[in-house]
Amino acid sequence: MLFSWFQNDHPRFYFLEPSAGGEFLWIHIAAKFILQISNRCFMKRYSLFAGLVLLFVVVTVIPVTASPAISGISPSTVSNAGDVTITITGSGFNENTTVWLESSYSPNRVHGTVVSWSPTSIIVRFSLSGQTPATYDVWVNSPFTSPLSGVWYPQDIGGRTGGITIYQAAGMTATMTTTPVTTTTVTTTPLLPSGSIIVSSVPSGAHIYLDNEYKGLTTFDMRNIENGSHVILVRLPGYLDWIQSVEVRGDSQSVFARLVATPATTIDATVQPTNPTPSPTPTTTRAPLGTGGAIIATIGAGAALLLMKRK
User: What pLDDT was estimated at residue 85?
Assistant: First the structure.
């Protein structure tokens, strides 16, 4: 920041220390030197025009440095089977640059080890064994020391949202590495007639259906999928169905399903009253006369007839 005032009818210029966060270091250095020359010129009663010309040269010619920025990441889709080496291209990197990954699905940062660096490229190794499959944001921090004041600025951060996708490895134990690319050639290729879809889930081992056709268990790489819109259904007993539409355009798509457990069912334990069963009405049953009873009855009938004849 430039600050000027008049002393003895001569303008005096001062250069104040800028704040951290993308300071213009080269302008800072050159402007301070040129403004000292300008002050001496004014002390000798030179024209104010000379000082303004010097200031214009500082502002328009001297290059500047900016905060770190990421323009490319290769590869951008990796497995969680082990160590992975990734090349990040951009600007504003230095020997103090650090790199880490963050995701809303993972509670911890994944810090990488910088293998080599240049102002426009860094090669980082990450240990991804057992990491949660998800899409991660990539962040870089390039702290620096001011060459004028010697003040250490510990934070100068840049990043890229959704820079890397980590998918669940299926029985893979080998270390995956990539060779850093020093040159990039852009070519136009025709659109392929089909692509692929990699489907992973948590928990794993869920059933995959593509357009209502069963394909296999997660994690699964479905190849030769025709271009166009497709519907993916991930189903696992005890969990709610997960459905998503995917557009294939001759490329490879990665789909991650985080399954939600089915809510427990509540059973109504209310006891309903029952109607009591009426007791049967007791009945009197006459027992049949035995042999003795029949004889007595016969004698009685005979006696009655004799009495009637005497009368």
Answer: 95
- Spatial CA neighbour of 87 closest among 163, 178, 165: 178
The CATH classification of domain 69-167, taken from the options 3.40.50.2020, 2.40.50.140, 2.60.40.10, 2.60.40.420: 2.60.40.10
Please, is 129 exposed, middle or buried when counting C-beta atoms within 10 Å of its C-beta (0-12, 13-18, 19+)?
A: middle
Strand partners, 195: 225
**Residues 93, 157: contact at Cβ < 8 Å?**
no
Name the CATH architecture for the domain at 194-258.
Answer: Sandwich (2.60)
Whether 180 and 207 have beta carbons less than 8 Å apart is answered as no
Q: Is pLDDT of 37 > 70?
A: no
The model carries a pTM of: 0.39
Interatomic CA distance for residues 25 and 27, integer angstroms: 5
